[in-house]
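Appendix B. Raw example, untouched.
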Amino acid sequence: MEELWEGIVSIGKRILKGGNITYEETIKLGKAEGSDIILLCSFANKIREKFNGNHVDLCSVINAKSGNCSEDCAFCAQSAYHNTNVKNYSILNEDKIVEMAIEREKAGAMHCDIATSGLGYTGEEEDFRIILSAFKRMKKSTNLKLCACLGTLNKKSTDALKDVGVERYNHNLETARSYYSNVVSTHGYDERIQTIKNVKSSGMEVCSGMIIGMGESMEQRIEHGFLLKKLEVDAVPVNILNPILGTKMENQSRLSPMEIVKSFAILRFILPDKNIRYAGGREENLGNLQCLGFISGLNGMLIGNYLTTGGQEVAKDIKMMDDLNLEYS
């Protein structure tokens, strides 16, 4: 009977030669423990180097509208269903948004994402018009790659974003379909998938990932990874749950650092040529071990502050990449 480490080696070699991993094989790799996790991460890193080079893609986010969200996402501090100390404010004016974008570029970001709380837009809202105007000005005032994270959108809205220069749209499915009912009840899974299809139809890149550590199993993370492969998304942000006091998940146990990096490596085996990136929660869950993400297959990172929590100093992120001999922009 083949040892697990032998399976990691044979599958890793196959992927490096342009092959794929099956769902059944991935489930087996998900059982890796101890030194087998290190071997798994090593091959994931080699796969990242083979298909994505040595470059780390840096992005940042502007929380342009915060709190009072109508949706009941169990992890989210911005939900009106939760009692948290998150700041609530309506849409920022476009001058402020553009000013913040310029600051993000100076800090080292290549991408800048305007994000807003709420279910989404139909294209007729005043808030949406402000966002479109801000993007037009950002296109003229910066060299940033423009991204948006505005919730559920129809085709009219995705076309409008494309027309003002938005290149990538972030719309996380959050978790596997089989676990989704444990996370949110106020909007459906297929509704979110339709937004991804609208984004692709409009000609923008799709950034869609997950939150790990919400109580889902490794098998469900793998299920989600294969769906993202089927949907042919371009970038996969991986958030690690940071339990926020006042949310439904405030008492959720944290994943161990080795379980986290194993999850990163598994995703790299499933999605060898995609941009798999750190999103929120790395500081609280990995601390001084954040560098392990980049030697387990990651090639992107959100820098600066997140939507409702602070992030690590950008200078520390830059030093971490320098120490790992990684290129970045």
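End of appendix B.
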